[in-house]
């Protein structure tokens, strides 16, 4: 009976996981295909899609941690080989990902990208093995790579480089240049919340009768001062040069940075959805078979 319960739990989990992954990948593929490609200079604020070339930021010098190669973005994984006589497997012992901003340029302009939260799919991917927890230098090639095939550790490193093409889809926003509007109530509330963080300072500024609290007339002065402060901050931001940004969407929409184009990505997502659908059907068939045995 216990084996039947475990089997039903596994098959039911496979059914649910396959269904969820299938629907997720189909929805992501639809987002990619339905979102028109925009030029950076003329793109509307909100969810947008761009093609361009990666460009190095002048102040950024990034080196990949495993190979030591210069790049604009990296992600790595270190796995350790383990064996207990019966089971042999690779166990992840360390992983990491760079968080530095990227810059994408097309024929119309450039856009800064915050890669945090993005599904990054780079074309450059190296995998090799070695005997040290942290490798020294680049991946071995040819005969040296073959000799290391029985080593204790396996390394994987992915990178994005300057001059490479990039497909990007996410939340597009522009700051500076006088383009952004002012939500005065929200901005005023933000200023007041900041001031409340230093309540002693707030009392010192606005508690005119020094009774240790803010009365209604004093709170009115706080609100007026916060409104003026919010307007001044907006004016200062508007005077700054216009800067375009791409980041993770606030809603559940795909945020993808890829060396591969939209059509290739959509094709990969459709294949993954098909595989997930097969898993879902197999799990459902297994559950039905187990329930038949129970009856």
Helical segment count:
6
Rg:
27 Å
Report low-confidence residues grouped into runs of 5 or more: 143-148
| Strand order, largest beta sheet | 1-6-7-12-11
Percent of residues in beta strands: 25-35%
How would you classify the helix and strand content by structural class?
A: alpha+beta
Average pLDDT: 83
Summarize the structure in words:
Residues 83-178 form the E3 Ubiquitin ligase MUL1-like domain. It is a multi-pass membrane protein. Keywords: Membrane, Metal-binding, Transferase, Transmembrane, Transmembrane helix, Ubl conjugation pathway, Zinc, Zinc-finger. It catalyses: S-ubiquitinyl-[E2 ubiquitin-conjugating enzyme]-L-cysteine + [acceptor protein]-L-lysine = [E2 ubiquitin-conjugating enzyme]-L-cysteine + N(6)-ubiquitinyl-[acceptor protein]-L-lysine. Its EC number is 2.3.2.27. The chain is an alpha+beta fold and 295 residues long. It has two domains: 2-176 and 242-294, no CATH class; 184-239. The chain is 40% helix and 27% strand. It is built from six helices and 13 strands. It has helices at 2-34, 142-147, 184-196, 199-206, 216-239, 262-294; strands spanning 46-55, 62-63, 70-71, 73-83, 88-97, 102-105, 110-113, 119-121, 124-130, 153-160, 165-175, 243-247, 256-258. It has a five-stranded mixed beta barrel. A four-stranded antiparallel β-sheet has the order 5-4-10-9, with no helix packed on it. The chain has a two-stranded antiparallel sheet with strand order 2-3. Strand 4 (73-83) and strand 5 form a beta hairpin. Helix 3 crosses helix 5 (216-239). The longest helix has 33 residues, at 2-34. The radius of gyration is 27 Å and the shape is extended. The relative contact order is 0.21. Residues 143-148 have low confidence and may be disordered.
């Amino acid at each position: 009976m216990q084996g039947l319960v475990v089997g039903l739990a596994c098959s039911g989990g496979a059914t649910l996981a396959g269904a969820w992954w299938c629907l997720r990948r189909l929805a992501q593929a639809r987002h990619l295909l339905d979102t028109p490609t925009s030029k950076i200079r003329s793109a509307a604020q909100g969810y947008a899609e761009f093609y361009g070339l990666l460009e190095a930021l002048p102040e950024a010098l990034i080196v990949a941690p495993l190979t030591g190669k210069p790049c604009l973005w990296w992600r790595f994984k270190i796995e350790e080989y383990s064996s207990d006589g019966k089971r042999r497997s690779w166990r992840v012992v360390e992983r990491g990902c760079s968080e530095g901003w990227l810059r994408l340029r097309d024929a119309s302009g450039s856009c800064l990208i915050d890669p945090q939260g993005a599904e990054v799919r780079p074309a450059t991917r190296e995998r090799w093995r070695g005997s040290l927890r942290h490798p020294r230098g680049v991946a071995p090639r040819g005969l040296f790579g073959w000799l290391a095939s029985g080593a204790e550790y396996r390394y994987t490193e992915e990178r994005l480089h300057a001059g490479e093409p990039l497909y990007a889809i996410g939340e597009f926003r522009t700051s500076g240049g006088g383009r952004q509007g002012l939500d005065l109530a929200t901005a005023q509330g933000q200023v007041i919340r900041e001031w409340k963080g230093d309540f002693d300072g707030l009392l010192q500024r606005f508690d005119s009768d020094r009774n240790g609290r803010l009365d209604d007339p004093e709170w009115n002065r706080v609100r007026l001062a916060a409104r003026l402060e919010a307007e001044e901050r907006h004016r200062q931001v508007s005077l700054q040069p216009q800067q375009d940004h791409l980041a993770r969407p606030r809603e559940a929409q795909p945020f993808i940075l890829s060396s591969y184009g939209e059509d290739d990505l959509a094709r990969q997502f459709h294949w993954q959805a098909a595989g997930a659908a097969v898993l879902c059907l197999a799990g459902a068939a297994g559950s039905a078979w187990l329930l038949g045995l129970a009856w």
